[in-house]
Amino acid sequence: MFNGTSGSLTSPNYPSNYTSGDTQYYKFFAPKNHRLIITVWDFVTEVGYDWLQIYDGEFANTGTPLLDWSGNKSTLVPKILTTTTNAASLVWYTDFVKTYRGYNLTWVAENYFG
After folding, report:
1. Among candidates 32, 49, 51, which has minimal Cα distance to 40?
2. From CA 72, how far away is CA 58, in angstroms rounded?
3. What is the C-alpha separation between 65 and 90, in angstroms, rounded?
4. How many angstroms separate the Cα of 38 from the Cα of each of 12, 52, 78, 95?
5. Of 32, 38, 50, 78, which one has the fewest beta carbons inside 10 Å?
């Protein structure tokens, strides 16, 4: 869980290849009356088998999906995502076959609701 007004997150071992057979869940919380601006700076995974999902809201798989990526998205970054609440959740999944460098993202909290 991450609280605060800014930070960064990368896949394990980034920029070297991530580990196989991994599932990670993260939650991000900005202060009250703020929203999160998430920027994905780099993204390369095994297409169709390793993926990153980012949701608008505290709970993965129930919030609005902001991102559902797999494969090489080098031509689509930076990708800027904006939440409608002060929370976001992230799911990172890798299978047991190929590994690549993964992802690099940052977030900042923006006063929006007050």
Report:
1. 51
2. 27
3. 10
4. 18, 13, 10, 25
5. 32
Residue with tokens 């494969």: 71
C-beta separation of 101 from 42 below 8 A? yes
* 75 contact partners, CB below 8 Å, separation of at least 6: none
Q: What is the pLDDT of residues 48-86, one digit of tens each?
A: 999 999 999 998 878 789 999 999 999 999 999 999 999
SS3 76: helix
Q: Which domain holds residue 16?
A: 2-111
- Residue the block writes with tokens 């299978």: 95
Are the CB atoms for 101 and 16 separated by under 8 Å? yes
Q: Is 74 helix (H, G, I), strand (E, B) or coil?
A: helix
For the chain, the domain total comes to 1
Token couple for 66: 């902001």
What is the CATH number for 81? Answer: 2.60.120.290
